[in-house]
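Encode chain A's predicted structure.
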Amino acid sequence: MTSGLTTVAYIGATILFILSLGGLSNPETSRRGNLYGIIGMTIAVLATVLGPRVAAAGIPWIVAAMVLGGAIGLYAARIVRMTQMPELVAIMHSLVGLAACLVGYASYVDTSIQFSGAEKVIHEIEIYLGVLIGAVTFSGSVIAFGKLSAKISGKPMLIPGRHWLNLIGLLLVIWYGREFVLAPTVQAGMMPLIIMTVIALLFGIHMVMAIGGADMPVVVSMLNSYSGWAAAATGFMLNNDLLIVTGALVGSSGAILSYIMCRAMNRNFISVIAGGFGTGGGTAPAASGDGQPAGEVSPISAVETAELLREAKNVIIVPGYGMAVAQAQHTVYEITQLLREQGVNVRFGIHPVAGRMPGHMNVLLAEARVPYDIVMEMDELNADFPDTDVAIVIGANDIVNPAAQDDPNSPIAGMPVLEVWKAKTSIVMKRSMASGYAGVDNPLFYKENNRMLFGDAKKMLEEVFVALKS
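Encoded structure for chain A:
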């Protein structure tokens, strides 16, 4: 394949990637967007492998690596449950960072192309930045994987003087960057590069360890952005225009998503990086001054829940991570289908940070074949709760916490939430009275119009479904 044909293929792949992002922005066009991305990546890989920069002797090695990697990816896709998607995404981000580091080192020791003057300085800056971003992405994503999979505690690890440590690390990175660029030989420049890599790896670990569990959805989107910039840096190192464009698309879209997520939590990006918000999981509810619980709850049975749903005209379902853990989305769809057949207006309310990653609930509901047109964002139906007969919260907590509006001293004060308590009756499905990932007690549990349906979400919803059918 000639260089001109390769360039044309890259342009076509770039257009398909842009169309893919556009398609993925809407549930109804997401399948088409995903197809565009697959076709674009296929064209990009074939154009690169068959292009003029790859010798015939290298093709068998590339094919072998693709077969091995494809087999591992296919195996992972088959065994990973939908509840494990956040940690899968995090570990995939780590591989992008690792690739950027390896490509950076390989580019530095490569003697096939010799640079001089300004070109040499620019090339070495590209290598240095690529390895820096890649190392931070790699170690940070590994820690995020550990937190999301509960292998590492979700509680923020706040080291005294951590901001000074970060500043010292930054100054060292700048100093060794100067030493790297001024190094007369590859051997002399290798030591500053290795030291910087170690500092970047430690910074990635420190940065994500300091971030609490409640901010993990933002961390996932942030690491997605980092992986994009790492890919773009790799493109500069390899002088590959398509990789630069693709990395920029991923990096910028991830940055925009991080901003949206921060706004949905009434947080700014700097406060997320500073860390300290969230726990490793549910904690006991707060107690009042006399040591008693903050209020009394009103439990409800599955049969009573079915009676309320049968009499309702408007129902809003708010899914959360508890639905994902219980794998209850298919039962939710069966109940939704039955209620809609009986003329009940059923809709789903999705908070931007529901679950452990952006779009987590949307993916689960799409897997269960819930119609796209009844799955709505928080802003689309928050005003409809006063006219709602029953609001069902399935395993969500912080995103329906009225303390965000009523308690200015709450850690989640100002965070936009789904106002389920304004419905005539709200039903919260939980295993226990434990608080959510943010570790904040929820006054919703104690409101007069709220009922608590305790137990495994899937089991209880199956009982509700049986009662509805009877």
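Residues 294 and 381 are 29 Å apart (CA to CA).
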